[in-house]
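User: I'll paste a sequence; please echo it back and then give the predicted structure.

Assistant: Echoing your sequence first, then the prediction.
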Amino acid sequence: MDGKKTILVVDDEPDIVSIVTMMLEKEGYNVLAANNGVEAMECVKGTKPDVIFLDRNMPEIGGDETMTGLKESPETSYIPII
């Protein structure tokens, strides 16, 4: 591992994901991306990011539902969500 913190960016707008990813990588973070809540839940299971940057308004499983699912799980409840 490279010692960098990892941030998961979750947003259904590809341009937003690209901009946020570029800004975070420029600051030295590892960045993972998910396009919706379903992808986010799967990604978190395998990677355990240090922080999740989550859009609240998404189709399928919205940000609020995703956040609730992550906070209710003992394996992910400790991860800060912005």
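The chain has three helices and three strands. The first helix runs from residue 14 to 26.
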